[in-house]
Write a structure and sequence with these properties.
Layout lengths: L4 E7 L3 E2 L9 H16 L8 E5 L11 H8 L8 E4 L5 H14 L5 E9 L7 H8 L10 H7 L6 H11 L4 H20 L10 E3 L2 E3 L10 H5 L19 E10 L1 H6 L6 E10 L8 H13 L8 E4 L4 H11 L12 H4 L6 H16 L3 E8 L3 E9 L1
Parallel strand pairs: 3-4, 3-5, 10-11
Antiparallel strand pairs: 1-8, 1-9, 2-8, 5-8, 6-7, 9-12, 11-12
InterPro entries: Thiolase, Thiolase-like, Thiolase_C, Thiolase_CS, Thiolase_N
Protein name: Acetyl-CoA C-acetyltransferase
Family: Belongs to the thiolase-like superfamily. Thiolase family.
Length: about 375
C-alpha cells in the first residue's frame, strides 16, 4: 500500500476566549495557516488535490464550506477544491485521516488537512441552539428512534465527565493535580520555545500575536475554591478544556509528490483508525480506540514514545491512562487542552503539530494521538518519525 507522509504542520497561537483572535473572521483565521503552510513547504499551491478542514457549528462566519472559502481568502488557486467535515472534537484529526487515505489509495498526491474554530464569535453548540430557536428538533431528545434505543437520558459532555470520574474512582483532587501539571508543562514549553517552530504568528492591528494565551499561573488552592459544575459533583472549570480560538493545518503527501516536488517528509502515517463507543458515556471512546490501534499494529504502550490524549476533561485522560496503564510522563508532555485550550475544529491538527515537533525534539520513533468526540467516538493516529 502507498505511504502517506507528513511534510509540515503549522498553527496559529491559541487565543483565549475574548482574546487576541476573537475578532478575526473564521475564514481569515483558517486562511492564515493555509497560506503559512504553502509558504513553509514551498509547494506549488496549484498542485494541491484537496483541502479538508474540520469545523463544528458551521453557521455565520463558519458556514458555507469554510475549507473552500478559507483557501480562496488566502489568495490561492481557484481550481483547488475544499471540503469541511464535522466529527465533533476530532474533526481535524479526521481531516488528516481522510487526507492520508486519499494518498494511500493512490487517487491523490498532495492534500492539506486542518481545522478552524472561533469559539469567541460562535459559541459551542451554537448550531443546535439556533435550530431550537427556529423550532427544529434537537439531535437527541426529540428523536423517537434515539429515545427508543437509549431512553430518556441526558446526553452531555459534563455529565459524561462526572460519570467517568465516578466509575474510575478519580477524585476532584486527582483531577486538579493533573490540571495543574498541564499548565506547568505548557508554561515550561512556552518558556523553552518548544512551540515556536509550529506557530505562524498572526499580525493584528495591535501588534504581532505569537504566543498561546490560555496557559496561566495557578495553584491547587485556587482550583479548590471553584464551584463544581453540578451540585455534589467533582468537575469544575479548572479541570476542563478552555474555550478558545485558533486554526491549524498540515500537508500530507504521497511518495510520488515527495519526489516530484522535492519535499522532505518529517513523519510517516503508521496507523489511522476510528472507533465508536457508548454515546451516552460519550467521552470514553479513546480507551477502546487506543486498545484497537495497538492490537492492529502489534505495538505496545512501551513502544510508543509520546502520547497525546486531548484534555477535554481531566477525568477523560486519567481514566484512559489508568485503563491502559500509560505513564503520565509520556502523556501531553507540553500540556493539553486544559492549559492550551481546545478550539474544537482545529484541535486535532494543533495537537499533531505539537506532537510532531516533540517527537523530533526528543528523538522518539512513534507517537500516538487520540481524542474523545461527540457521539462516543475517538480517532487514533500513530506517526513514525523519519
Amino acid at each position: 500500500m502507498p505511504e502517506a507522509y507528513i511534510v509540515d504542520a503549522v498553527r496559529t497561537p491559541v487565543g483565549k476566549r475574548g482574546g487576541a483572535l476573537a475578532g478575526v473572521h473564521s475564514a481569515d483565521l483558517a486562511a492564515h495557516t493555509l497560506a503559512a503552510l504553502v509558504q513553509r513547504t514551498g509547494i506549488d499551491p496549484g498542485a494541491v488535490d484537496d483541502v479538508i478542514l474540520g469545523c463544528c457549528d458551521t453557521i455565520g462566519s463558519q458556514a458555507g464550506d469554510i475549507a473552500r472559502t478559507a483557501w480562496l481568502v488566502a489568495g490561492l488557486p481557484d481550481h483547488v477544491p475544499g471540503v469541511t467535515i464535522d466529527r465533533q472534537c476530532g474533526s481535524s484529526q479526521q481531516a488528516v485521516h481522510f487526507a492520508a487515505q486519499g494518498v494511500m489509495s493512490g487517487t491523490q498526491d498532495l492534500v492539506i488537512a486542518g481545522g478552524v474554530q472561533n469559539m469567541s464569535a460562535i459559541p459551542i453548540s451554537a448550531a443546535m441552539l439556533v435550530g431550537q430557536q427556529y423550532g427544529f428538533s434537537t439531535p437527541f431528545a426529540e428523536s423517537p428512534g434515539w429515545t427508543a434505543r437509549y431512553g430518556e437520558v441526558e446526553v452531555s459532555q459534563f455529565n459524561s465527565a462526572e460519570m467517568i470520574a465516578e466509575k474510575w474512582d478519580i477524585s476532584r483532587e486527582d483531577m486538579e493535580a493533573y490540571a495543574l501539571a498541564s499548565h506547568q508543562r505548557a508554561l515550561a514549553a512556552i518558556a523553552e520555545g518548544r512551540f515556536a517552530g509550529e506557530i505562524a504568528p498572526v499580525e493584528l492591528a495591535e501588534g504581532t500575536f505569537a504566543v498561546d494565551q490560555c496557559p496561566r499561573e495557578t495553584s491547587l488552592e485556587k482550583m479548590a475554591g471553584l464551584q463544581t459544575l453540578a451540585p455534589g459533583g467533582r468537575i469544575t472549570a479548572a479541570v476542563a478544556s478552555q474555550i478558545c480560538d485558533g486554526s491549524s493545518a498540515l500537508l500530507v503527501a504521497s511518495e510520488r509528490a515527495v519526489a516530484e516536488h522535492g519535499l522532505t517528509p518529517r513523519a510517516r502515517v503508521h496507523h489511522l483508525s476510528v472507533r465508536g463507543d457508548d454515546p451516552v458515556w460519550m467521552l470514553t471512546g479513546p480507551i477502546g480506540a487506543t486498545r484497537h490501534a495497538l492490537e492492529r499494529t502489534g505495538l505496545t504502550v512501551e513502544d510508543i514514545d509520546l502520547f497525546e490524549c486531548n484534555e477535554a476533561f481531566a477525568s477523560v485522560v486519567l481514566a484512559w491512562m489508568k485503563e491502559l496503564d500509560i505513564p503520565h510522563e509520556k502523556v501531553n508532555v507540553n500540556g493539553g487542552g486544559i492549559a492550551l485550550g481546545h478550539p474544537i475544529g482545529a484541535t486535532g491538527t494543533r495537537i499533531m503539530a505539537t506532537m510532531l515537533n516533540e517527537l523530533e525534539r526528543t528523538g522518539g520513533r512513534y507517537a500516538l494521538q487520540t481524542m474523545c468526540e461527540g457521539g462516543g467516538q475517538a480517532n487514533v493516529t500513530i506517526l513514525e518519525r523519519l
